[in-house]
Amino acid sequence: MTDTETISVYTKSAGDYARGFASSKNPDQEPDYVAFVANIPAGGRILDLGCGPGHWAARFREDGYVAEATDATQAMADLALDRFDLTVRVETFEALKPEPIYDGVWANFSLLHATRADLPGHLSRLHSALKPGGALHLGMKLGQSEGRDKLGRFYAYYDEPELQEMLTTAGFTVTRTRRGNGKGLAGGDETFLIVTAHG
Length: 199
Prior knowledge:
Order of helices and strands: HHEHEHEEHEEEHEE
Strand content: 25-35%
Number of strands: 9
Oligomer: single chain
Radius of gyration: 15 Å
CATH topology: Rossmann fold
Helix content: 25-40%
CATH class: Alpha Beta
CATH superfamily: Vaccinia Virus protein VP39
Number of helices: 6
Mean pLDDT: 91
Structural class: alpha/beta
Distance between the termini: 25 Å
């Protein structure tokens, strides 16, 4: 299910988002990147799920991987094409086919826009889309509710044990977690969790 209000916010602020947050050379996330690609074979196939302006998919491609990217916002896909010559499939999370074709899925602060009711199904679909032992990177915000931020974007929040349990239920083995704090597009300081797991 696509939340039209969230899509509208990203459509209007795509340029600002790209200027403020679209850096794949972020030193804070470099260890996350290294932990993820350590599980990907040379030339492996990676899906950047909810890629935004495409900076991470471009980094994967630059580093020799076969990169695919999806996003629900046409404006983000347009930015990815303009900035990185990257073709992005404009589609929802539900469009992902449960076929084991990816060596890794990078879901960096994208699935936090799915409802709490929908997340288990998305995680199960991701597991089915990975080759046996394939890697998952997941970035989520910590909390215990769901609702809209001051910009109107929908978010769902989880505590760490709940998220780990959901991943285990979907068939994943969590191998690394990292907590951090940062300011997003709405300007608030929030705590997030990065998870590296494999199928």
